[in-house]
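The protein record reproduced below.
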Amino acid sequence: MADRYIIAADLAHLRIYRYSQEPGQFTPSLQPVDAFDFPDGRRSYVSREADVAGRFPGSHGRSPGMSSDERLSLQEEVHRRSVELIVERITSFMESNPNSTWDLAAGSNLRNHLLETLPDGVRRRLNQVISKDLVNVSPADLRTHFALR
């Protein structure tokens, strides 16, 4: 039987659990397999970019010669990079477990970006998706969200 994993993610954390139910075991269990933290996923915009250096030349009546940001806001860029890191970790993990399936719990905004970015081979093995940020719940509580039988 192929392994089954549950992955919970937000912009700052990724938690991977292995689902198992031994013969004769009434309640299935989730064992932590791996965990990653991405500090930039939670740091505020101001704490990262509080100085004036690095501003871009501007126009359109703003402060003479300076603009505060590019077209793609820094917040969007940090979000995009965080999604890329999470996708890399999920892809690497699932490729190292080629016969396994998985479920995902992530907030709706992150979930959409992950599903758009994940490689087809990894996405095809995805069973269930829960649109909730469950990265900080206990494995027992996480299990109840997925109706594992």
About this structure: The first strand starts at residue 4 and ends at 9. Residues 4-46+64-145 form a domain with the Nucleotidyltransferase; domain 5 fold (CATH 3.30.420.60). Helices lie at 45-48, 74-95, 108-117, 120-123, 139-145. The chain has one domain: 4-46+64-145.
